[in-house]
Amino acid sequence: MEWNVYLSGEIHTDWREKIIAGCNKYNLDINFSSAVTNHEASDAAGDVLGKEDNNFWRDHKSAKVNAIRTKTLLESCDFAVVRFGDKYKQWNAAFDAGYCAALGTPYITLHDADIIHPLKEVDGSAMAWASTPEQVVEVLKYTLSQQ
C-alpha cells in the first residue's frame, strides 16, 4: 500500500528529514510532501503579483499563493503529521490540523510535553500525539505493514 503523507508545521529543525530517513530505513512506501519550508521564499510567494508597500497585503497575497500548494496537498494526502515547535507559534500548523479534522483526514501531532495544554483541542482531534520523529516512524511502520 502506498501512502501520501503531508508533513506540516515547524520549519526550523530537521524533524522532516528524520521521519523520511526512518521510513526509508524500513522501505515504507510513502510519498512525502509539505509546505514550502524556506521561510523567505514562503514570505515572498505573492511578490510575483506585484510589490506591496503594506506588509499586511504582502502577507495576505503570499498566504493565498502558499495556500494553493497546502490546500491541494492536504486534500490529497492519506495522513498528516503536524509538528509544533517551541521557537515560534505555528498558527499555520494549527490551521492545517483543523483542516485535516474537517476533511476527515487522519493526523497525528508531534510536539513536546510542555505545550500539551495549549494544544488540547488540536490533540483532541488527532489520532495520536508523538513527542519524537522516531515515534511517528513507528506509527507509520505499524500502520503500513499490518495486513
Question: Helices and strands in order, then pairings?
Answer:
Blueprint: E1 3-9, H1 15-25, E2 30-34, H2 39-43, H3 55-76, E3 79-83, H4 91-103, E4 107-110, H5 120-125, E5 128-130, H6 133-145
Parallel strand pairs: 1-2, 1-3, 3-4, 4-5
Helix pairs in contact: 1-6
- Binned strand content: 15-25%
Query: What is the residue-averaged pLDDT?
Result: 95
Q: Globular, elongated, flat, extended or rod-shaped: what is the shape?
A: globular
CATH fold name: Rossmann fold
Secondary structural class? alpha/beta
Low-confidence stretches: none
Description:
- The chain is α/β, with parallel strands linked by helices and 147 residues long.
- The protein has 6 helices and 5 strands.
- It has helices spanning 15-25, 39-43, 55-76, 91-103, 120-125, 133-145, and strands at residues 3-9, 30-34, 79-83, 107-110, 128-130.
- The protein has a 5-stranded parallel β-sheet, with helices on both faces.
- The longest helix is centred in the middle third of the chain and has 22 residues, at 55-76.
- The radius of gyration is 16 Å and the shape is globular.
- The N and C termini lie close together (10 Å).
Main features:
147 residues; five-stranded parallel β-sheet; alpha/beta
Quick overview of this protein structure:
The chain is α/β, with parallel strands linked by helices and 147 residues long. It has helices at 15-25, 39-43, 55-76, 91-103, 120-125, 133-145; strands at 3-9, 30-34, 79-83, 107-110, 128-130. 48% of the residues lie in helices and 16% in strands.
